[in-house]
Design goal:
The complex is a heterodimer of chains A (about 575) and B (about 475).
Chain A (H helix, E strand, L loop, with lengths): L17 E3 L5 E3 L14 H34 L10 E5 L1 E2 L22 E2 L6 H7 L9 E3 L2 E4 L4 E5 L4 E10 L39 H10 L2 H22 L3 H20 L15 E2 L13 E2 H11 L5 H18 L2 H5 L2 H16 L8 H26 L3 H4 L15 H12 L12 H16 L10 H5 L8 E5 L9 H5 L6 H4 L16 H5 L6 E5 L2 E5 L2 H6 L3 H4 L25
Parallel strand pairs in A: 10-11
Antiparallel strand pairs in A: 1-2, 3-9, 4-5, 6-7, 7-9, 8-9, 12-13, 13-14
Helix pairs in contact in A: 1-7, 4-5, 5-9, 6-10, 9-13
Chain B lengths: L11 H6 L15 H4 L1 H28 L7 H7 L6 H11 L3 E5 L6 H6 L2 E5 L8 H4 L10 H11 L4 H5 L2 E6 L2 H10 L4 E6 L7 H22 L5 H24 L9 H9 L6 H21 L10 E6 L8 H8 L3 E5 L19 H13 L11 H13 L4 E7 L3 H16 L4 E6 L6 H34 L8
Parallel strand pairs in B: 1-2, 1-3, 3-4, 5-6, 5-7, 7-8
Classes of the chains: A alpha+beta (about 575), B alpha/beta (about 475).
The complex binds iron/sulfur cluster (5 copies).
The site of one iron/sulfur cluster (SF4) has 13 residues of chain A, from helix 17.
Chain lengths: ~575, ~475
């Protein structure tokens, strides 16, 4: 070896640390600092976990209960068991657009039906119910490839509410070989007739022998819990693979967002949910499952909230329970990690940001004032929406206004509405009812959304009213962000990379839990912080990700990584082999 | 993947909008003796260079004498000969080919931009002590920092070939000394003053700093005649990142106990890139890092394992003014960490790129110089104290030597607070206020030795207490044998 300390330089040589070689020289052995013991599970995380498990159980039980009663109810009313009939009668309010249609009784008339069938306590009937008074008897209605036959007559079923009921016999065909009505209406629980119509020659005519496999398949598709499991797996498998092989958290996050988007859209694309009665029950998700989509999995939280505020809770307490429980499960478990890791609207913004960076356009950073204004706007939209819903509920708005869009508080300014419904129609795989009644403000919101998402990171998320519901849960939920202020060099990199410009992560030096309300827990800051152990992302109290220089440098180019050799520090778990040194190195 | 707007520089508008202060050299306006008397100047220059060479030889000899010095230090030794280093030839060749050299001071000049414009950056803060008298002829402030006067003197006497080669110098307005130095230097060369915001974490400071760096970019481009494009900037940022990574690897290696490299050597290694070609430095520093890693595995140390682990903090110690580190290590201390802007801080903080587009790269590069800097010219400067505390923990420091250049008020003003917070962690601190001159060496030696004894005594006491604690817990002798 090259150099050794001469014997005698250390006059107080201690046991165990030095060793004398044959040639009389002293070698000094190093005692290296060991790794710290992993921290025990903090109490808060345990409590969170227990709450979570209880909630999942309760939710699962409720889901089963609701699914069964619903099935019973459907059969009671003469609703059709899935997949067996081609005709049935049902009652619904009919909205006719674009122009009012008046028909002589007995006359056969064919017109475009906006395929929007509403339940009697749907808030939309109010303006339109009156306008179709007393029309259509004995009518043929064709819409696309759906044919409605033998509509009988309109008659008010509820004097108080002044509603109408229509009896029609429906015969349906569709490209997929099956059609499901009323999916558009969130009230589908009490729908008198729901069901899927088999068309002779379609893929399932109810007659075929069910092999055990397909029976099993059907069973899964109709089981809410199994559906949840499948959805979970669709997200979990790619994410765990990505967590193993991806080089950055950013990539894992992208995989998570994309697979979740895929999962919830399996229904939209018609592959999964098309025959699944249970599916709509599976989740109440914020802004995902826009209610204006056909076959979407789940139901938008905003929609449920304002809808029930408008129409009351009388017939649907069970749905409310399900909604609240799902809501709690999601938020208690995830907090705003929902926004960072799953939300499809967030994903679209991230993708657009990525595209912008690839093109090389500059990013616009909102000033603190602008951020504040948007944040106030978030609360403004939220509470205005609630207020409007209540006003609709107590029939004050209806007295003055006779226009449909007002009856869709929040949804009318939601860019997800046009974005996803147009998107769905655009796939051509299913028709999209919602796309035919997009509020103009929402269209404006969409164009603003698309434009700003290119230049501003997570532009819409600064104003998204859904986050109002989530923000209180951030920091209480199982996922949190921690900082060891002693290790921070205040380099402000964490602030620069943050998609929502959280300053606390950079400036906070005292507190250790820095999960602030605005943080979407994307863990990008943890990943770029160059200081070993400065920032940590915790899941259920366990360190899921911890900042380190090796993580930092791994994200930069290969050329930079070469100088790394092993990990940044030879004794901090660096198992990699030595770097390929420079020419002339050993 | 090449960017759509790769070749075009997306920020042309910004750079053009940045207002460049007019700091072209004026004809010498102020009088000093050597300025008029060429012969005397030559004489002075010769004497200074001669003395500086002696000093450098002296320190290098001392450093070579230390036991088990890493072999890879040879290259750094050669390069550190400063006034006769082979680097001078390289720079002259570069200049002969029409290249430019841009001097920098402190740690705030955006080196990546300079290199991207195909110019060579050299740090000009001087550690030569016999140019101070000359410097005082134009800055006759007895209470002013010796580094500033020495730097000025070097320029006045044309003693440093690096200074002579510089076409312009970037002077950040950090402390009073640098501030006035920039003004005086305008008699001699082109000076680019840079406004450094002293409160650095506000939005307005961030945008002001970005504008300042943009103005510098424009000045650099005008001087060199080279436009800086995306590719060049990316290349240079990656080079910097490589260097920073190696520097951090070396930094981490100094945590070894007992140390595998001397404090002086390490300081020298960190100062070589002030003038060296960074890519060459990376190669040699990597060799050094590999050697040191081997040492960690083999258990070879450079000093007595019982030597007190000292951390050097405070005002910059520029080569060849190695009086203090030399004293400490001669007296049996072992400098395991330093917090000097001429030491680890020069390359410690990396440039973190979020998106490889011009704006983000530029911002990341510019902010790297401002935000993580713990130069005491900033306020509030708690992060510096926090950093020192953390280093005390990471490097198992047992005593801090706080070096203050007489007249450096920003460091002196923080010394008491640093001292208190170090002592709160049970680590004694010695404040040494000194000049460049060698006169007080013996007096300082006495103080340093006394301090090291104090550190040793404390350690013994702590070890005893620890052993006692171990005994009470498990009845056996405590010890940290490997
Ligand atoms: S329009 Fe927006 S708020 Fe309304 S249901 Fe759809 S996603 Fe939810
Ligand atoms: S803030 Fe709203 S749009 Fe953004 S990710 Fe969260 S839920 Fe989705
Ligand atoms: S990136 Fe890490 S070190 Fe830098 S300011 Fe943020 S927390 Fe501190
Ligand atoms: S603070 Fe960190 S985890 Fe939170 S949003 Fe910003 S980058 Fe993501
Ligand atoms: S401590 Fe600050 S002001 Fe002094 S030389 Fe270093 S960077 Fe410049």
């Amino acid at each position: 070896m090259r150099g050794k300390v001469e014997k005698g330089t250390g006059d107080s040589v201690q046991d165990g640390r030095t060793q004398v070689t044959e040639d009389g020289r002293t070698l000094i052995r190093l005692s290296l600092p060991g790794r710290k013991m992993p921290r025990l599970v903090p109490r808060r995380a345990l409590v969170t976990a227990i709450i979570l498990i209880v909630l999942i159980l309760v939710t699962a039980i409720t889901h089963y209960y609701v699914a069964n009663t619903q099935q019973e109810a459907a059969e009671e009313v003469g609703g059709l068991p899935v997949g067996e009939r081609t005709e049935w009668s049902l009652s619904f309010c009919l909205r006719v657009e674009p122009e009012r249609v008046e028909a002589v009784p007995g006359q056969n008339i064919t017109f475009i039906l906006q395929w929007r069938a509403f339940h009697y306590d749907c808030p939309y009937w109010l303006p339109y119910g009156r306008s179709v008074e007393g029309v259509i008897v004995n009518t043929n209605i064709t819409y696309d490839n759906v044919i409605l036959q033998e509509a009988t007559e309109w008659e008010p079923v509820d004097d108080l509410l002044d509603t109408f009921e229509m009896q029609v016999t429906v015969q349906a065909t569709s490209r997929d070989g099956a059609v499901k009505l009323f999916r558009d209406c969130p009230w589908y629980f009490d729908q008198k007739a729901r069901g899927v119509v088999d068309v002779p020659g379609g893929d399932g005519d109810g007659e075929e022998d069910k092999t055990s496999l397909s029976a099993w398949w059907d069973r899964i598709r109709q089981d809410p819990l199994a559906t949840l499991m499948v959805l979970f797996l669709i997200v979990a498998i790619p994410v765990s693979l990505a967590a193993r092989y991806a080089t950055s958290v950013k990539q894992v996050r992208m995989v998570s967002q994309l697979s979740f988007f895929g999962a919830i859209n399996i229904g939209v694309l018609g592959f999964w949910a098309i025959r699944t009665e249970a599916l709509p029950l599976t989740a109440a998700l914020p802004s995902t499952a826009c209610n204006y989509l056909n076959y979407s999995v789940g139901a938008c939280v905003v929609y449920q909230m304002r809808h029930y505020l408008s129409v009351g809770f009388f017939n649907s307490w069970m749905f409310i329970v399900v909604l609240i429980l799902t809501f709690l499960v999601l938020y208690v478990a995830m907090g705003r990690a929902w926004c960072g890791w799953l939300c499809p609207l967030g994903m679209i913004q991230d993708v657009m940001n990525w595209v912008r960076a690839r093109i090389g356009l500059r990013r616009y950073r909102l000033s603190p004032l602008q951020r504040q204004v948007l944040n106030v706007g978030r609360y403004g939209i939220f509470f205005a929406g609630i207020l409007l819903s209540i006003l609709i509920g107590i029939q004050i708005v209806t007295f003055y206004v006779d226009a449909g869009d007002v009856y869709r508080p929040i949804c009318q300014v939601c860019p997800a509405y046009p974005l996803f419904t147009i998107g769905q129609a655009g796939t051509g795989l299913t028709t999209s009812v919602g796309a035919q009644s997009i509020p103009w403000i929402a269209l404006g919101a969409l164009s603003l959304f698309l434009f700003s998402a290119v230049f501003i990171r997570r532009a819409f998320c600064r104003i998204c009213p859904v986050a109002v519901l989530m923000m209180p849960f951030n920091g209480v939920s199982g996922i949190s962000l921690h900082k060891d202020g002693k290790k921070c060099t205040r380099c402000s990199m964490c602030y620069r990379v943050c998609p929502v410009d959280v300053t606390e992560v950079w400036k906070e030096m005292e507190k250790t839990d820095i999960t602030v309300h605005n943080c979407i827990l994307c863990m990008r800051c943890v990943e770029v912080c160059p200081e070993d152990g400065c920032l940590t992302g915790r899941v259920m109290g366990f360190n899921a990700i911890e900042s380190s220089y090796s993580k930092f440098i791994r994200q930069h180019d290969r050329g930079t990584r070469r100088s790394m050799g092993r990990h940044s520090s030879p004794w901090w778990g660096g198992k990699g082999k030595g770097g390929n040194g420079p020419p002339g190195g050993n | 993947m090449p960017k759509l707007f790769g070749r075009k520089r997306p920020n042309i508008r910004d750079a053009a909008a940045a207002e460049v202060p007019d700091t072209r050299p004026s004809a010498p306006r102020y009088r000093w003796k050597g300025g008029e008397d060429e012969e005397r100047l030559d004489e002075l220059s010769r004497i200074i260079v001669g003395r500086a060479k002696e000093l450098i030889d002296h320190y290098q000899e001392q450093m070579r004498k230390a036991p088990s010095r890493p072999e890879a230090m040879a290259w750094f030794d050669e390069r550190a000969r400063f006034l006769s280093s082979p680097r001078i030839g390289e720079i002259e060749e570069h200049k002969a080919n029409g290249g430019k050299v841009i001097g920098t001071m402190c740690v705030f000049a955006p080196l990546e931009l300079i290199r991207a414009a195909d110019a060579i950056p050299v740090r000009l803060c001087s550690g030569l002590h016999n140019t101070i008298a000359t410097g005082e002829e134009l800055m006759a402030d007895a209470g002013l920092c010796p580094m500033v006067k020495s730097t000025l003197g070097v320029k006045m006497t044309h003693a440093s070939p690096f200074f002579e080669a510089s076409d312009a110098v970037i002077v950040p307005m950090v402390c009073d000394g640098k501030f006035k130095l920039g003004e005086v230097l305008q008699d001699f060369m082109e000076v680019w003053m840079v406004n450094v915001p002293h409160i650095k974490d506000t939005q307005q400071a961030r945008s002001m700093w970005l504008d300042e760096v943009r103005a510098l970019q424009q000045q650099i481009e005008t001087l060199t005649g080279n436009r800086i494009y995306w590719e060049e900037l990316k290349r240079e940022i990656q080079l910097s990142l490589r260097a920073q990574t190696v520097a951090r690897r070396l930094y981490d290696l100094r945590k070894a106990d007992p140390p595998v490299i001397n404090g002086r050597d390490s300081l020298l290694v960190n100062q070589t890139p002030h003038t060296e070609d960074l890519s060459v430095w990376v190669e040699h520093a990597t060799v050094l890092a590999q050697e040191l890693e081997q040492r960690v595995r083999d258990g070879i140390a450079v000093s007595d394992p019982e030597a007190p682990r000292i951390m050097l903090a405070g005002a910059p110690i520029m080569w060849p003014n190695f009086k203090i580190p030399q004293l400490i290590e001669e007296s049996g201390g072992s400098i395991v960490a330093d917090e000097l802007c001429s030491g680890t801080r020069w390359l410690y903080d990396p440039i973190g790129i979020d998106e490889w587009i011009w704006d983000d790269m530029f911002q990341a590069m510019a902010e790297r110089y401002l935000q993580p800097s713990v130069c005491p010219c900033f306020t509030p400067n708690d992060p510096r104290i926090g950093r020192i505390k953390q280093m005390i923990e990471d490097f198992r420091v047992e005593g801090v030597v706080y070096h203050v250049l007489r007249g450096c008020h920003i460091y002196n003003g923080e010394s008491t607070r640093v001292k208190q917070s170090a002592e709160d962690r049970g680590v004694p601190m010695l404040i040494i206020e000194t000049e460049y001159s060698q006169e007080d060496t013996e007096q300082l030696r006495t103080r340093v030795e006394a301090f090291l004894m104090l550190v040793r005594a404390r350690r013994k006491k702590a070890a005893k207490a620890k052993r006692r604690a171990f005994k009470t817990i498990d009845g056996s002798e405590g010890g940290d044998g490997a």
